[in-house]
């Protein structure tokens, strides 16, 4: 077990009473013990962030660059250790945990660079003798609320641009994954952030998160999580007239056309639907397959699923780790049962697995003969469960792909330039993939979706600036 991890408020590590998190691959293994903040500490963190804002927002690019670059370098140097901790607390495989940690380092590196690339505009006024300057300023105190499924990358892609653009932060990570959150804050704190600039408040969403939503001193909230919580963030933010950004669920379609390269399509489906135990907002949970390739595709996918190694996340051979906790495991099983009740066929998997240690192991499940109207095809399951929906042709595939309350990612496997181009233009999703899994994105380009998946400006890359800055237009009369 790690040492007792405290919250960081105004540059001090504080907190005594705590909660434990356990390893989903081995429920007897306690990963660590963590302080649990209450409403009062959340208030102190917000006050500290507010007090630190004037100096940090005027600190200039070099100070911010130094901290972000140092953090990037330390995360990269410790990628194996941090990646292992992540896999141990969340259940994704060791390779995925290390990969995500490298991603976090790359994000800090990118935003270190962004501090030196800030720009503004000087434009002539329509009035003689007047000049106009357009600049960007920090927004203020930013509340950052994150989910459990990317314990280091999501905090990184919110904290890094917030700091780069001169904001101060109150960070509330998901209860299930405090170790990765604590580590990233510890690294940034030691990298030289002034006190109060970044505050960590681990604790319950309904307490600490809610206190952030209710505070008039939080000027912006960046949230990633479920649709239900996202709506609360939105309602509270409108009440306070604050800026907010939501990244929520997905029910992402992967279309497979008759002319697809079968091996590519099966690779995309296997990776997109089941890797990271299907616990990705970008997972391919609806496989929409045209009649001519349907049976060959299902047979080939089942063959590959049979070979998947499901086991302890820390075991080097493991390809699919456990589900994150008992609640999520039950949700996955419930949705498989709902799909079957509604008329789908459980063509593969779906049962719990026993391994050397007690854990939340589930054999990835494939529902075939599903329709797009079934609850299992419309609601986010967030586990290693995919539904195959049979369609006649491309036009029906596109219509089914777009017939969803979500719009995060979508994909198509085809060798037809015409269909690939048409799909890119007509898919109602924020991110579209051709002959690639729906999950797996670059860190230097915009991330986000449409409809029930996202609200507000995009995250990541240069586009992150839209959320973490506010535009000022200044006029000067010089005679
Ligand atoms: P969740 O909504 O339960 O929790 C997200 C965060 O909100 C947690 O930190 C939680 O403590 C906090 N929270 C809970 N109640 C709150 C309240 N009343 N006020 C303020 N904060 C509160 O989501 P989760 O189960 O942690 O994550 C899974 C969800 O996240 C899935 O729906 C998934 O699709 C989504 N997700 C989306 C993206 C994306 O970018 N679109 C990425 C990853 C995960």
**Through-space gap between termini:** 69 Å
Low-confidence residue ranges = none
Quaternary form: single chain
* Main sheet summary: 7 strands, mixed
Active site: 247
Family: Belongs to the aldehyde dehydrogenase family.
Protein name: NAD-dependent aldehyde dehydrogenase
Domain Aldehyde dehydrogenase: 20-473
Topology:
Elements: E1 7-9, E2 12-14, E3 18-23, E4 26-35, H1 39-57, H2 61-77, H3 79-90, H4 94-115, E5 121-124, E6 130-138, E7 141-145, H5 153-164, E8 168-172, H6 178-190, E9 198-200, H7 205-214, E10 220-224, H8 227-239, E11 243-247, E12 252-256, H9 262-274, E13 284-290, H10 291-307, H11 326-341, E14 345-348, E15 365-370, H12 375-378, E16 385-391, H13 394-402, E17 406-407, E18 409-413, H14 417-426, E19 431-434, E20 450-451, E21 454-455, H15 465-468, E22 469-477
Parallel strand pairs: 7-8, 7-10, 8-9, 10-11, 12-13, 12-18, 13-16, 15-16, 18-19
Antiparallel strand pairs: 1-2, 3-4, 5-6, 6-22, 11-21, 14-15, 17-20
Helix pairs in contact: 1-7, 2-4, 3-4, 3-6, 4-5, 9-10
């Amino acid at each position: 077990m790690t040492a007792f991890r405290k919250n960081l408020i105004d540059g001090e590590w504080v907190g005594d009473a705590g909660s434990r998190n356990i390893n989903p691959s081995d429920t007897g293994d306690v990963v660590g013990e963590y302080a649990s903040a209450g409403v009062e500490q959340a208030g102190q963190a917000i006050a500290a962030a507010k007090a630190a804002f004037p100096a940090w927002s005027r600190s200039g690019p070099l100070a911010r660059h130094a901290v972000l670059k140092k953090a990037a370098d330390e995360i990269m140097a410790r990628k194996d250790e941090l990646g292992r901790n992540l896999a141990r607390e969340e259940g994704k495989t060791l390779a995925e945990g290390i990969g995500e940690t490298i991603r976090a380092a790359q994000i800090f590196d990118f935003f270190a660079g962004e501090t030196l690339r800030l720009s503004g505009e000087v434009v002539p006024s329509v009035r003689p003798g007047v000049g106009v300057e357009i600049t960007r300023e920090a927004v203020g105190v930013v509340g950052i609320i994150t989910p459990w499924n990317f314990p280091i990358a999501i905090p990184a892609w919110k904290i890094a641009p917030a700091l780069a653009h001169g904001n101060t932060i109150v960070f509330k990570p998901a209860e299930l994954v405090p170790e990765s959150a604590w580590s990233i804050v510890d690294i940034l704190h030691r990298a030289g952030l002034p006190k109060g600039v970044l505050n960590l408040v681990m604790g319950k969403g309904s307490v600490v998160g809610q206190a952030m939503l209710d505070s008039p001193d939080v000027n912006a909230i960046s949230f990633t999580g479920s649709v239900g919580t996202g709506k609360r963030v939105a309602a509270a933010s409108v009440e306070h007239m604050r800026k907010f950004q939501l990244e929520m669920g997905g029910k992402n379609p992967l279309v497979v056309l008759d002319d697809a390269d079968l091996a590519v399509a099966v690779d995309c489906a296997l990776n997109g639907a089941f890797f990271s135990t299907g616990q990705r907002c970008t997972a391919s949970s609806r496989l929409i397959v045209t009649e001519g390739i349907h049976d060959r595709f299902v047979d080939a996918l089942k063959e590959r699923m049979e070979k998947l190694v499901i086991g302890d996340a820390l075991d080097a051979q493991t390809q699919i780790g456990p589900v994150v906790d008992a609640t999520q495991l039950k949700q996955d099983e419930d949705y498989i049962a709902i799909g079957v009740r509604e008329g789908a066929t459980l063509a593969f998997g779906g049962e719990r697995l026993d391994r050397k240690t007690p854990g939340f192991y589930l054999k990835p499940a494939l529902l075939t003969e599903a329709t797009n109207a079934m609850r299992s095809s419309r609601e986010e399951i967030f586990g290693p469960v995919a539904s195959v929906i049979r369609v006649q042709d491309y036009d029906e595939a596109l219509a089914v792909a777009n017939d969803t309350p979500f719009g995060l990612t979508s994909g198509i496997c085809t060798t037809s330039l015409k269909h690939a181009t048409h799909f890119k233009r007509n898919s109602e999703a924020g991110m579209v993939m051709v002959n690639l899994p729906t999950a797996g994105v670059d860190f230097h380009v915009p991330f986000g979706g449409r409809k029930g998946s996202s609200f507000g400006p995009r995250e990541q890359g240069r586009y992150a600036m839209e959320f973490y800055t506010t535009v000022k237009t200044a006029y000067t009369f010089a005679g």
